[in-house]
Amino acid sequence: MAAQSFYARHEFFLRRLHSITGVFPVGAFLLMHLTINASLLSAPSTFQKNLYQIHSLESLLPIVEWLFILLPILFHGVIGVMIIRSGQANTSMYPFAANIRYTLQRASGMIAFAFIVWHVFHMHGWFHFDFWAEHVSGPLHGARFRPFNAASTLGLAMQNPLVLALYAVGVTACVYHFANGLWTMGMTWGLWTSVGAQQRALQLCGGFGVALGLLAVGVLYGTYTVNIQAAKDTEDRMYESMVNSKEIQPNPDKRSQETEVGGQRRTAEAAGLARGAAE
Description:
The chain is mainly alpha-helical. It has a single domain, classed as 3 helical TM bundles of succinate and fumarate reductases, CATH 1.20.1300. The chain contains 12 helices and 2 strands. The protein has helices at 6-9, 11-23, 26-38, 44-55, 60-86, 97-124, 130-137, 150-157, 161-188, 195-225, 228-244, 268-278; strands spanning 258-261, 264-267. The chain has a two-stranded antiparallel ribbon. Strand 1 and strand 2 (264-267) form a beta hairpin. Helix 2 (11-23) packs across helix 9 (161-188), helix 6 packs across helix 9 and helix 8 packs across helix 10 (195-225). The longest helix has 31 residues, at 195-225. The protein starts with 5 loop residues before the first helix and ends with a helix. The relative contact order is 0.12.
């Protein structure tokens, strides 16, 4: 008899751990992430204040990101692939709504996982050492986001209609996977067992998914329509004020590498030298 795989030996435990991590912390992070990004609809300054608050964690931030965001996402994605490989959809033979949701849950999971991998590269570049930035993330248009120029760099990163369309598909997959996953998680953990309870839970999770989807649409609209130069001016004023008041330490790595002056672009370093000469 062939030896069972690790997943086969621990399927019961892994499926439940996969289910709960899809809600917390992965799903909770999705909700928080969209909510913070939606603050851009209020004003670029509001969005920037939220980013300053997040980055006030300083050296603890990478630990929090890996422990509560990246590792759970990787675990949920890898186990999800194992679950998909071990299951068989039967929508062609039994095209019931439950079977359609079964297939959509798995398809949306694969799309969401691929989107998250690309999204992290697009905004943060995956890695930050010089060779990677110069030869990989830079040429491939990665690492577009700078937390101390949050609204302007996010807006610049989203100006390409193709990029916006890919985000629309990816975010929709994430929202559906989370909302439907809430419902399946409840059945996995025995929170709703009767048919009536499952139907009520399905309606609640569906309503939650629609609301979260509308929030995501608002975020995409806000990033695409932001006044980039006005946002940049606001961010620069906020940064100088925060540095002067010693609320933050100067950090060029978290600042945009380009600034707009007289219709021309120049590096932030050159801009800084020019200000120093003027002073």
